[in-house]
Amino acid sequence: MKKEKISVIIPVFNEERFIEDLLWTINKQSYPLDKIEVIIIDGGSEDSTISLIEDISKEINYKLITLYNEKKIPVSALNIGLKCAQGEIIVRLDAHSNYESQYIEKVVYQLTNSKEYCNVGGVAKAVGYDKISNAIASVLNSPIGVGGAKFRYAQEPIETDTLFPGAWWKKDLVKIKGWNEEWIVNEDMELNVRLKKETKKKIVIIPDIKLEYYPRNSFGKLLRQYYRYGYWRNKTSNKHAESMRLSHIIPPFFIITLIALPLLRLNNLFVGLSLFYLLTIIFFSIKLKDKNNSLFHIILSIIITHFSWGIGAIHGYMKFGIPFKGFWKVFKTVFLSKVRFNKIS
């Protein structure tokens, strides 16, 4: 059977902690290494990332290309990689992740054996590496922390609206002109909406495809990350109303409600809602607690993800406008329709 040539694209910036393990992981892939080219697009790393790449390049068994990303943002790096890629299939990898030895072989198999798929990925299980990242990882592996992001916790093959990191036919990405560089964050969702429209195909999560994701290891970094997620998600919702989900609405409206109740002198309702939220968070935190993390860190991680995402979304409403079409779409889906994502047989 013919083995397609694969182009792996990896945006990097200051990844000295993870880059060596990632490149050696690729070297252990079961897919023929002579069919793999790896394109690293560096955003001007100020640590030892580049020197580590140069050292490893002398020992690995696949083609390795390093390019410079002048704009220093991941979405630009992805387009640089796409333009340079010679492979028929594009596989995006993230430097903050670890991949099973059959990862590339499995995503390629799914793409090449189903004409219905335009993007394939697996479940990205968050794995901590210190006390704080362990707590954050527990939250990111749970619906209480990431809402409708099924690529974090799906347990069976399922159709979805987006996933991370992804694998595509290059011809499909070229047809939609790659990633939209107006999206500094949430570029994967924006691309996948256009991809589904153009190809009329499915984006699928296959839980048998395994990868591990290394989350932030400070609450400040987590706060900034989820604030940006909420802010840029609203830009996507305004552009593509069909991509909006109920989980995108709850955090900002919860925050708006908490602010409005005292202003309306509904103090008892404010106290009651706040206590209900806190008790709910504590309940789920106890379920997530294990020997590798602390209850306090889990509670704090959940609150930060909810409130930073919600505040970011509110800022997004102010910047990009309120996505009324998206709200109406969610209302119809939740209350007027039985439409749900279908399981993949």
Q: What features would you describe in this structure?
A:
- With 345 residues, the protein is an alpha/beta fold.
- Helices cover 50% and strands 16% of the residues.
- The chain has 13 helices and nine strands.
- The chain has helices spanning 19-27, 49-56, 74-84, 103-113, 131-140, 143-146, 170-175, 187-199, 219-239, 246-263, 267-288, 295-320, 324-336; strands spanning 6-12, 36-42, 63-68, 89-92, 97-99, 117-126, 158-160, 167-169, 202-213.
- The protein is globular and about 70 Å long.
Radius of gyration: 21 Å
Overall structural class, as computed from helix and strand content, comes to alpha/beta
Which range does the strand content fall in? 15-25%
User: Uncertain regions: pLDDT < 50 for 5+ in a row?
Assistant: none
- What is the 3D shape? globular
* Secondary-structure element series: EHEHEHEEHEHHEEHHEHHHHH
Q: How much helicity do the residues have? A: 40-55%
Q: In total, how many beta strands?
A: 9
* Spatial sequence of strands, sheet with the most strands: 3-2-1-4-8
Q: What number is the mean pLDDT?
A: 92
